[in-house]
Amino acid sequence: MKRVLTNDFSWSKSRHEKLAECERAYFFQYYRSWGGWEQRAPEEVKTLFGLKKLHSRFTWAGSAVHGAVRDALRSYRAQRPVDAAALIERVHQDMLAQFRHSKARRYRADRRTFEGLVEHEYDEPVAPAEWKRNWDTVKGALEWFFASRWPALAQAIPAERWLEVDENDFDHSSFLLDGVKVFAVPDFAWLEEDGTPRVVDWKTGGAREGYDDQVIGYAMYVAERYRLDVMRVRTSLVFLNAGTEQEVAISPEALARFREHFEESTGRMRALLADPAANVARDADAFPLTTDLTRCARCVFRRPCGRTGG
């Protein structure tokens, strides 16, 4: 039976951040673009859906790193050897092909190969040295990962103690909090020998506000899905380019802080709905544009908002 997609109300770190950046962008991302994959959808909706799928060169780099680490970990879980140099070169070649695909704007006709880069969509002047620096970020992160303790640690974990590796399963990568679906996709989760649950989140950039809450959410997800005690979960942020690790403590205070943040965020989201039960948004006018024009300069929706001449 064909699955029927419905635009249900949910919460995630990325959704919260989009609303904080710009309410109009949030409206386009989560409401007006809904259904844009359908051939019979209005052209405006199709356009918005296409724009929301674009990457920036920075998120593209992060996705490339996460995908490569995910593939390596899955190979370790299956006890298959990993040639680190070959994997890094494969990522390089894939990114070169994706760059060419995006520069030619072929993503407008075929997003199966690559969804495109916002820099090409808006003809942004990016110097070759900047593109090279983007690749250097990916290469540096992967080289550090393969030289770190993590490959040996992963290879030593028996199959029965692995929990998840960046599953991103729409039907399962979530938990309910106060009746709201909260999406959570841990990069790496397993059980230590004594049964302690461990959750790791890889980062390619520096520390940012909100990262602690993100992994606390992952801990809550892992605890609920695998029927574990959330207070036993240990979580870490691993900054691949900096080569540093940061433990994030799970405590009653941390969980209470997460819940308070979640309630404030979902309350603000619901206030923008005409019909909260059906998750129907108010009209676009209820979602004002940000007054911070520096945010517009990196937003995928700057053209429909009229904040670009492109």
Describe the structure.
By secondary structure, the chain is an alpha+beta fold. The chain has two domains: 153 residues, no CATH class; 110 residues, 3-Layer(aba) Sandwich (Trna Endonuclease, Chain: A, domain 1). The chain is 45% helix and 13% strand. The chain is built from eleven helices and ten strands. It has a five-stranded mixed β-sheet with strand order 2-5-6-7-8. Strand 9 and strand 10 form a beta hairpin. Helix 4 runs antiparallel to helix 5. The longest helix is centred in the N-terminal third of the chain and has 21 residues. 27% of the residues are buried. The mean pLDDT is 94.
Question: Which features characterize this protein?
Answer:
310 residues; 13% strand; three-stranded mixed beta sheet; single chain
Portion of residues in beta strands equals: 5-15%
Number of helices: 11
Strand order of the largest sheet: 2-5-6-7-8
Would you report the number of β strands?
10
Tell me the domain tally. Answer: 2
Q: What number is the mean pLDDT?
A: 94
What fraction, in percent, of the residue positions are helical? 40-55%
Low-confidence stretches: none
- Biggest sheet record: 5 strands, mixed
The outline comes out as globular
Structural class: alpha+beta
What is the chain-wise order of helices and strands?
A: EHHHHHHHHEEEEEHEEHEEH
Span between N and C termini?
43 Å
- Measured on Cα atoms, how large is the radius of gyration? 20 Å
